[in-house]
Amino acid sequence: MKVLLTGATGFLGKRVLRELLSRDIEVRCAVRESSRLDCIDDIRTELGCQIEVVSVDLATEDGCHEAVSGCEVVYHLAASLDGCTSSLFQNSVVPTRELVRVASESGVRRFILVSSLGVYGPQKLPRNAIVDESCPVDEAPHLRDAYTYSKAVQEDVAWQTARENDLSLVVVRPGVIFGDERGILSHRVGLPFGGRMLRMGGRQRIPLTYVENCASGVVLAGLAAGVDGQVFNLIDDALPNGREMIRRYRRSGRQLRVIGIPQFAIPLLSWLNEKYSDWTEGQIPKVLSRHRTDAMWKPLRYSNEKAKRLLGWQPSIDIDTAITRTLSFSG
Amino acid sequence: MSERSLRIGLVGCGQIADAHLQQIRRAVGADAVAVCDSEPLLARQAAERFDVPMQFSSLNAMLREARPDVVHVTTPVHTHAPLSIKLLNAGVHVYVEKPFTVDADEARQVIDVAEQNGRLVCIGHDQLLDPEWVRVCEIVASGMLGEIHHVDSVLGYPINGPFGRHVVASPNHWVRKLPGGLIQNTVSHPLYRITEFLDDAEPSIQARWFSRLPEVPFPTELRANLQGEKVSGSLLFTSTTKPYQRVTRLYGTEAGLEVDLNTQVIRFHQSGRYPGAFAKLEAPYRQLRESCGNLKRSVGRFVRGELHYFEGMKRLFESFYESVREASFREVSSVRPPVTHQEAVRVTSIMDRIFKQCRDESGDFAFGAGQKAAEEKFSPARITGEDRSRETPAELVGQGHL
Questions:
Q1: To 10 degrees, what angle do helices B104-117 and B80-89 make?
Q2: Which H/E stretch holds residue B376?
Q3: What angle (nearest 5°) sits at the alpha carbon of residue B173, between those of residues A82 and A51?
Q4: Measured on CA atoms in the order A320, A322, A324, A330, is the torsion positive or negative?
Q5: pLDDT of amino acid B63
């Protein structure tokens, strides 16, 4: 079987590439002209495998055809992580629409889109509710941060285009992916402010997934039988809370100055931020709008049961080991 | 038109469109009624985030259905002239994001079409209405600095920012096809801060560009000296020094000042009153008092919610919209837009001469070589979606500029 992998030079992509090759799957990597290929070369040398690499622009039909031609399965991981909203749309959403459409014309058997757990809209869920795949997606993602908005529309566009073109789509929604090059502290734990971290709440569970665990889940989404049209959360077991993560971070010898924002104060701060932003016509942006804070820091529980049951996925590296490995890697 | 809010449309939903839509929302007497981009997804994100009621992927459809009084053009630079001409011929007034056009020939064409149609064009020289810049102009007009003899103007450009990184990584990016490349996209800001005081049509120019970054294959630094009859200017465009400044220094016959548009602070340079060692005490004391005054002023403006990065843009919009209202009941030729048509052409012409001299003196950089091809490839019809094909490059669809 030959598969197309986009985003192979990225944080998750190179692990997915390694996982695919370890299963003797033939892989074509679609990369940008400007991508550095060192990591692909390293994997090729280490595993002694053939890896086909094509430099294409996935925002164009020709580029997509060149990438997809002859592949049975597409793993679409490529996405921009930063930049303004229009740039994220241009680099993530538009290429996704084109790739899904061209894949449907090219006889692709299954298309796997790596989305994000952030697309859920848990604002209306009660505290400590379970977020599983039946939880609705955010109805107003444009009120979230630019990245989450782009991921929500990317997924929406992928579903729509797949339906219109009768393509089998599987969506995986990883939690916060962490690992060697990317530390353990994310915005789900707190926000940077003037050299300090504003710890948001602290007792709510952080929906983490270690990059190696996540990669194996992504690969299984393309291989498991009978999961067409399904969505899967990829989150590790025994999730720590924000306080525990900060404690682990400090215990590794790193310095972190923290200002704790208690859970009960978050709605009040959000209300103040919104009112002040409206009153000053945006002198300070709505970083802490209630719509965002409810999605990011409300205490919730996250389910990975469906991925375990239907994909046969297990986060093989436990969270404690994963955090230890990550902290021992990054300086 | 004078009684109702102006209907504002926008074409090109890239990065800078965000600033426009945010400031249109703040501007008095105007409503953003429609956005347009050849890529519907880009029009969608702009409309959703800024509550714009209509979105289009065809400019003709926007003109027909939204009936805007003014359209903001925030597309890539090589499309400014053809789009503006199309809009002016359709009878709308046009606000064009800087830089105005690819070159002065195009600028003259746009102005000619505007005048033939009795419509106004405004170029996005928004820092001219920044509150601190307006204050500087008032100080100069008061005579406190004496006659201005020299202006230093600095722009620091974050080449490692999201837009700069994208340009570096994309050999076919439209910015790299401009005659002045990346520099052309932003250098009008520090330049018009000089030309505000240097009013010669054709000052003598000494300019050179270069790159200090080995991984960047195009110029990221510009040094230019302008010499007018009464005033000289020096322009520093740099991508390697921090902080990224938007600073101008004025040198007058009585005193000087420095204005930092990023921090919204003005500092004066004055001769001391006291002799010798006393002057060494007087200077820091005066700076202390000045800093206290600046802090008090900034705190007041913060409390009143007046510290907006694009405040100048909002004020320029309001001023232009006022000109548009005037044009509805007066002869257009008697209406003076906030940045005159002549000034738009003059600044563009000076930019042309700077880039020509840089290209003549450093043949290493092949800027402009792809320009003709770009013009042919990026016709206005394709930009606005009327003849949109799957081959439409992503770079066209409103990828904004800083």
A1: 10
A2: helix B371-377
A3: 70
A4: negative
A5: 98
- Residue A292 to residue A123: CA distance in whole angstroms: 8
State which residues of chain B have pLDDT below 70.
1-3, 363-402
Distance of alpha carbon A216 from alpha carbon A20, whole angstroms: 9
- Which of chain A's residues have a Cβ under 8 Å away from the Cβ of B49? 85, 142, 149
CB B60 within 8 A of CB A113: no
**What pTM, to 2 d.p., does this model score?**
0.91
What tokens were used for A47? 């595993």
Residue A12 corresponds to which tokens in the numbers above?
Answer: 């998750």
Mutate to test the interface with A, among B45, B168, B215, B311 (most CBs of A within 10 A): B45
- Residue B398 with chain A: CB contacts under 8 Å: 86
Q: Is B54 exposed, middle or buried (0-12, 13-18, 19+ CB in 10 A)?
A: middle
| Nearest to B42, CA basis, from B23, B71, B16, B81 | B16
User: Could you give the residue ranges of the DSSP H alpha helices within B273-310?
Assistant: 276-303
DSSP secondary structure letters along B31-44: EEEEEE-SSHHHHH
Q: Quick one: pLDDT at residue B388?
A: 32
Cβ pair B305:A280 closer than 8 A: yes
What are the structural domains, with CATH classification, of chain B? 6-125+310-362+376-396 (3.40.50.720), 128-283 (3.30.360.10)
Report pLDDT digits (tens) over A131-155. 999 999 999 999 999 999 999 999 9
Contacts of B217 (CB under 8 A, 6+ apart): B211, B365
Per the CB < 8 A criterion, the answer to whether A303 and A129 are in contact is no
Mean pLDDT of A112-130: 96
> Which CATH number does A2-181+206-238+302-319 carry?
3.40.50.720
Domain limits, chain A: 2-181+206-238+302-319
pLDDT for residue A77 is more than 70: yes
Q: Determine whether the interchain pair B41/A157 forms a contact, defined as Cβ–Cβ distance below 8 Å.
A: yes
Identify whether the C-beta of residue B341 lies closer than 8 Å to the C-beta of residue B111. Answer: yes
ipTM for this prediction: 0.92
